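2024-03-11 09:14:02 INFO receiving multi-entity request
2024-03-11 09:14:02 INFO entity count = two
2024-03-11 09:14:03 INFO echoing inputs for audit
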Amino acid sequence: MAHEPVAVVGIGQTKHKKRRDDLSIAGLVREAAQRALDDARLTWTDIDAVVIGKAPDIFEGVMKPELYLADALGGAGKPVFRVHTAGSVGGSTAIVASHLVSSRVHTRVLAVAWEKQSEGNAQFGLGGGKSGSIGAGGAFAPWIRAYIRKSGAPEHIGWQIAVKDRQNALRNPYAHLHLKDISVEKVRESPMMWDPLHFLESCPSSDGAGAIVLTDKAGGLAAAADGRPPAWVLGTSMRSEPSSFNGRDPIRPQAGVDCAWDVYRQAGITDPRREIDVAELYVPFSWYEPMWLEGHDLAPVGEGWKMVDRGETAFDGSFPVNPSGGVLSSNPIGASGMLRFLEAALQVRGAAGEHQVDGARVALAQAYGAAAQYFAMWAVGSEPPSG
Amino acid sequence: MSTQTSQTIQFPYKRTLGPVIGRFFSELTALRIVGIRCGDRVVVPPMEYDPQTGEQLAEHYVEVGPAGTVVSWTWVPEPGPHHPLDRPFAYALVKLDGADTNLLHVLDTGGEDTVSTGMRVAPRWRAEPVGRIDDIEAFVPGETPEGPTAGEPADVRTMEFFSTITYTDVLSPTLERYAASMRAGVITGQRCPRCDRVFLGRGYCSVDALRLGPEHEEALPDHGVVSNYTIVTPTPYPGQKETEPFARASVVLHGDEMVVSQQQIIGVPVADIRVGMRVKAQWFPEAERNAAEISSKGWGTVAGFIEGWVPTGEPDEPAEQFMDRVF
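2024-03-11 09:21:47 INFO inference complete, emitting structure
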């Protein structure tokens, strides 16, 4: 049986900040969800099912927050799902929601992902509640060292990406960091947090949420006819692999390669570098930009950093990466993947405002989590999928 | 006999209350209980959103109580350390005067035979309210609140609380054997018969999904190579002991077998740690070795048995051969 085409008709996000002390957790998710509903011109009662994503409960100390949040998300009497796939969760949440539509189980689905890092401490949570936590930066730093050494990349690549994404964030009013005077010198001279990663090559801790409303082909066409073009989902995929085994390539994990090609195949993409107009990649630490360019065959192995160095991934480059400012500029962990996915949708709707990439018709969004072992990706387009 | 291990983690969370719950707690500091109007009902404690329709509620607060009626209850004959009172009490649903919903709270009556559905109760307030639900210590029989006289309300916007959890694990047979071996000063791994990879205390092959049992076990060397590392500048959090930059290294045992993650390198400054450096285990004295860090949620760990790794002084191994091996 053919799948139902899926359209993103509503997009919402919060203003991401170090501390949203004006809102409860429920208020935070509502801010994003209400904006997505308003964008879709739908009400709470129009929604058939709600999918909630977030990272570990230990981050805020609220166990099973989906139960507490059902009221705030209009979940009474409806199916409410919680998704948890570490840092990739925001992407997985969007994908699970899209499958509820593509399988024709539901017609209008709200997907929400969030994190309120200010209520707890991610370093504590990631360390299993013990002293000596190395955090996410400490976990990824050795692989970044391996990437730099193996690829022969000059060290300024990481600094350059840190500057590029922060400059992009200046175009995005929702981004957490607005570092107007960011420069390569500032990144280089910022403290070494997780050798070889500097402070300014690392993501911030943010409070924030993202939300999307997905619907079927009829709903997408109706929105388009109403002058509100949707983003059409062209392909979705999730893949995982064990964190640890001899022979694993942590710089170009096979699960990420497979995930990307599964999306490309569904979307009819055979030359991703040429056929994709813009990408939102999950880059919490600067060096993950070239690693994922190579990991998803957007650049040949060992040459992702050269794309960066040539300026191809800059906002006005031939292959813009992270026009929103990326995870380096806003990191509400559970929501960070959703922000990649909704930014890709904004781009192909032509609705990204000052961070709109000209001519964006096909966009790729990617999120990864845990020990670079969980992947979630989708491709969205401005035209409905063919066939 | 099976081995149990136990771990406790604790952290002070800071809850942002938002305007509606914040108002409820602020009013408690002035010995007032407020609900919120939701359609033709008064909901207590106030909710931010209509649970039926999902719509945001206008901030129309209504003072309720202080007295109310017990709607239902359950007796707690033997309070534990986490209970709100140290003597037998009831959890009760109290419908405060003027409210349309029931508040779950504590009922302090002295004995089970003095509790009944329909009884009238009033709050006993904490001597110095701070803006938390336990500013009401308990509800007590009667119509009249007990406790201090009301002062000015405080502006309560956040609430801090410690969350503590203790995990008890019963170790699997694989981890039992692993712990016994480690106590004897021998690292034991399990080799997959299909892919020939060695795993530590895992009981299965991550690649081939085969069960690995005692027949697959073999002693591993307690020396190896630093495959990669990071130097962490500690970002402080409660309970953290590190204050200065510290290194965590991955050690690949004997050439290209098992990797042991997040290890300390002993006896050299962190700046001297290198990929390819050859190291050997520094075991704790046999009497001090313990399995406390082993849990059923993870794999074999050397913590509690091996203090860290000491450079052997031998020439380095080629870095490129090892540096991908981190976890």
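2024-03-11 09:21:48 INFO post-check: Chain B touches chain A through 60 residues (CB under 8 Å).
2024-03-11 09:21:48 INFO post-check: The radius of gyration of chain B is 29 Å.
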